[in-house]
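SAMPLE LOG
Freezer: B-3
Tube label: C17
Construct: single chain, 141 aa
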Amino acid sequence: MLPAAARLTHSQDFGLVVRRGRRAGRPRLVLHALTSSALEQSASSRQHDTRGTPTLTGSQPAKVGFVVSKAVGNSVVRHRVARRLRHLVRDRIGVLPAGSALVIRALPPSAEASSADLGVDLDAALRRLKLGSTSGSGGAE
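STRUCTURE (predicted):
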């Protein structure tokens, strides 16, 4: 389980990361990443929660959110994919830059993928976006 401080929970945060972040596509998932420097650049147009305070700031630890649509499968399959992705991210959250926000969107092929396959795709997407060193973090062992 990811700690509460490491989870994206507001829909505005998901939208901000997907809209303004960089993207890396892999066969089983798409990773959207917004770093703290990009957050600071968009401070004037930053989304706010219902109390009017910013929900994403560059001084927070890295935050991660998951999107697993019905195209992936039924609820059992979707929850299995989400659990696998959460477990993989938990092992890698320490190498992510502080203040960064990630949205991981599972694609339909993730339903048949093993945890090792998902880990390989996640590591490749993180490397492509130059987010932390992901060598030896439980890839295809």
